[in-house]
Amino acid sequence: MLKGILAISGQPGLFKLVSNSKSGFIVESLIDKKRMPAHATSKISALEDIAIFTEEGDLQLQEVFKSIKEKEEGGQAINHKSSGNELKAYMREVLPNYDEDRVYVSDMKKIFQWYNILQENDMLIEVETEEETKEEE
């Protein structure tokens, strides 16, 4: 699901990897669909590599998104601009065992913003499809 979806430090929103270039990547914004170069010097994070700290260890971001999707029945998550207390309460609902000492409100804002961007672009459907494919094999 999250394969090829990138977060670029200093750039708002999420990006889809389009192709490689000499100096980095060509990416397309999921917000406005504009393409731009992402240079190798930029701090680029692949969403598939991101995990959230829990009391039991790390949990892949995809699993957190799946939990939000189940709670919201495929709809939007809480607005990332909500108050810190609202974001923490929401996070406890979708991931009760998250590590409150190591997961900051700024992290929660990103998680919920990213989820909503993916939801708006119908990119969350792939979560179940990907898992069902693995189970059938």
Structural features, described:
The chain is α+β, with helices and mostly antiparallel strands. The chain has 2 domains: 5-47, SH3 type barrels (Roll); 51-136, Arc Repressor Mutant, subunit A (Orthogonal Bundle), CATH 1.10.10.1650. It has 4 helices and 7 strands; from the N terminus they run E-E-E-E-E-E-E-H-H-H-H. The strands form 2 sheets. A 5-stranded antiparallel beta sheet has the order 4-3-2-1-5, with no helix packed on it. A two-stranded antiparallel ribbon has the order 6-7. The longest helix has 16 residues, at 105-120. The radius of gyration is 15 Å and the shape is globular.
Which helices and strands, and how do they pair?
Elements lengths: L4 E4 L6 E7 L2 E6 L5 E5 L4 E3 L4 E4 L2 E4 H12 L11 H11 L10 H16 L4 H12 L1
Antiparallel strand pairs: 1-2, 1-5, 2-3, 3-4, 6-7
Q: Keyphrases for this structure?
A:
137 residues, DUF5606, alpha+beta, Arc Repressor Mutant, subunit A, SH3 type barrels, 7 strands, two-stranded antiparallel sheet
